[in-house]
Amino acid sequence: MRNLPLIFIILLIAFGCKPTSDKSYNTDIDSNITINQQEKINDFAIIIHGGAGTILKENMSDEKEVAYSAKLEEAVKVGHTILKNGGTSQEAVMKTIQVMEESPLFNAGKGAVFTNEGTNELDASFMDGKTLNAGAVAGVTNVKSPIELAIKIMTDSEHVMLSGKGASIFAEEKGLEIVDPSYFYTEKRFKSLQRIIEREKTELDHNDKTAAFYDADIKNAKFGTVGCVALDKNGNIAAGTSTGGMTNKRWGRIGDAPIIGSGTYANNKTCGVSSTGWGEYFIRNQVAYDISAQMEYKNISLKEATKNVIQHKLTALGGTGGVVALDKNGNMSFEFNTAGMYRASMDEKGNLVIKIYKE
Ligand code: ASP
Question: Does residue 36 line the site of ligand 1, with CB under 6 A?
Answer without folding.
Answer: no
